[in-house]
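pinned: reference chain
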Amino acid sequence: MITPTERSVDTNGVRLHIVEAGERGAPVVVLAHGFPELAYSWRHQIPVLADAGYHVIAPDQRGYGDSSRPEAVNDYDIVALAGDLAGLLDDVGTQRAVMVGHDWGSPVVTNFALLHPDRVAGLVNLSVPPVPRAKNPPTQMWRKTFGEHFFYILYFQEPGVADADLGRNPRESLQRMVALEGFTAPATELVDKPLPPLPEWMAQEEFDHYAEVFTRTGFTGGLNWYRNFDRNWELTATTPAATITVPTLFIAGSADPVLAFTPRHRVTDLVTGEYREVLLDGAGHWLQQERPDEINALLLEHLAGLELA
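pinned: its C-alpha cells
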C-alpha cells in the first residue's frame, strides 16, 4: 500500500500542511475535513484511493494543525476557504479535481463547486448535504428556531467564549465532541458529568494524536469558521455557477443528529446534475473514521463513474 507523505504548500496567503499520496498527473482527489478534525481524519481513505490510481491531497485546512491560523475572523470566510483548495490544485498543476468534504468540509466543497465550477469534476459530501443558500441570514434563523434552547453553533458565535471553555481541558473537550456530547451544552456545564468513553472505532493512539494537536493549537481557528455563517451568506448572494452540475454523492449516517437541522428536501434545487444519496444504517457523524470500508467502497464507486481525463 502506498505510504502518504507530508509537506507544506503556500496558497492564497496562507501555508497549508498537506498529506499526499499517489502519482502526479493522476486524477486528483481533494479531501476536506471538518470540525474538530485534521487531515488525519482521512487516514483510512488516503492510501486506498492512492492505490486505486488517484493523486490524493488532504490538507489541514486553515486554522487547523500545522497550517496557518490567521487572527482575523473574516479570514475564515467561504471565499477564502474555497480559494485555499483552488491553490492546492494550482500547486499540483491540475485544472480539475474531485472534491470530497466531511462536516464543515462539505459546505466548503459545495461552495467550491459554485465559486470555481470549472475546477470540479465531481463532488462527495459526507454528513452535511449540499443545500441551497438560505432565504435569511443563518444565525437569524437559528435564533428564531432555537430560542432560549442551546444550539452549539450559536454558542460558538462570540469570539473567545467557546475558545476558552473548550481550551481549559482540550483532551476532555475533544473526547466529549467525538462522542457528540460536547455539542449538547456549553463546555462549562459538562465538566461535572462523567466523561464518555471513546467510541470503539477510535483507538487510543488515534485520539492521542488529535489531543496533542488541539492542545497545542487551541480551537479558535476552527471556531472562526462558524463565525462566518452570516458573512458567507452575504458573499454567496451571487456565484459564478448558480447550481452544481457535476455528479454528486451524499453519504450520511442514519443516527447522525446533524441531519435534524440540515434538511435534504431542497438538495435538488442546488444540485442539478446527477445526484445520489446513501444513508448508512446506524452510523453516526464521523463517517470516514467510523465506517471506513463502506466509505472507501462508495468513494471508489463514485470516482469510477466520473469522466476524469
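why pinned: The chain has a mean pLDDT of 96. The CA atoms of residues 133 and 237 lie 8 Å apart.
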